[in-house]
Amino acid sequence: MPLDKSEIKQLLDRLIFELTDPNDWVQDVWGLSPLMGESAARLFEVYEALVDCCPPEQLESLWERLYAESQAANAHQN
Known about the structure:
mainly alpha; about 85% helix
């Protein structure tokens, strides 16, 4: 059964930001460097816009690919 968009967004958020809330991530980056924080904020805005406009099937496919890549990278590290 396909996942709905909110479930896929949660999975992508966890994959990208791990245990950090995305807004907290932006603030953390901003605290390290305002210039980088501004870029992080724009990046997060674009990410959210893409999630909003992409069909759930494409988002799920993207998540599956990114998840598989992250698992492969983790396997190489161990």
